[in-house]
Amino acid sequence: MRAATEQHRRPDATQGRVAARYEVVLVAYRSRPLVEELLARLPAEVPIAVVDNARGADGLDQVVAGRPAARYLPGPGEGFARAANLGARTSTADHVIFVNPDSGPTAEQFEAMIADLDADPDLVAVGATTVLPDGRVELGVGGWEPTVRRCLVHAVGLHAILPEAGVYARPVPGRPLHLEWLSGACLVVRRADFLALGGFDESFFVYNEDMAFGRRVREAGRTLRLRTDILVPHAGGGSGEAKTRMFQMRGASMMQYVSTVNGPVPTALMRLELTLATLVRLAASAVRGRRALVRSHAAYVRGLWAGAPDLS
Predict the structure, then answer these.
(1) pLDDT at 236
(2) Domains of the chain from N-terminus onward
(3) Contact residues for 70 (Cβ-Cβ < 8 A; gap 6+)
(4) What pTM does this model have?
């Protein structure tokens, strides 16, 4: 156990104490069972900051209090980006690792991604490849900048045969793939670089803050990397919000991002393409009798056109 502890911590000569080499930042919202499961899988000496956007509503502070290397932060309750930035700003670690409560990374995987950052000063972030409970790689572990062409590929389903031509990536495990943005489900960043680039864009409540951060990285002439050989289990959708509301948020955030970086004409075209793609999927789900998916797709379209739901 002592050797493991020395991996996670380093001497801090300036303050005369032992400081964390890295710290996991976990943003939670009414997800205590998921957080408990995640913490149980990680060694007790792994430093973790739990940012609770529900502010103790489900007793998460008590869970954190029982873990020696963990700290509890009452979150602002204003979305993922703001809470994640709070965790990063208040950390003293060299590296910050953003992890979703419904994921299952290991300390060994953290070390492997940090080694990439240590070896390449141009790198700002390294992401893991998340896999669904059925073993498939998750669509959207990262991707490329949305454009009219890429959204069209997505809309007509051509990404199935042209996997690098759409917006969202589903990489083959072990096969390197260059992406323009990475999901924050399991993402390691060099903390100083992350903060210098402004962190996640807090104008996004949830979703697309990772896409916006990827753009900041590229504009700064820096790079990011997806580790397709590091596979992390991810349940996908562990959240206290109703699933349809989150799908509406997803659509709203996409249009917020697209409209911020594009003019009115390409923005309108991409909205139409994404609407077409989702309506086709909605119809297919209806034929199969998958009512929950029908509601989710309808909510996404609503987000594309009407914006975010009322979160008050």
Answers:
(1) 67
(2) 2-233 (3.90.550.10), 243-306 (no CATH)
(3) 39, 47, 48, 49, 50, 64
(4) 0.91
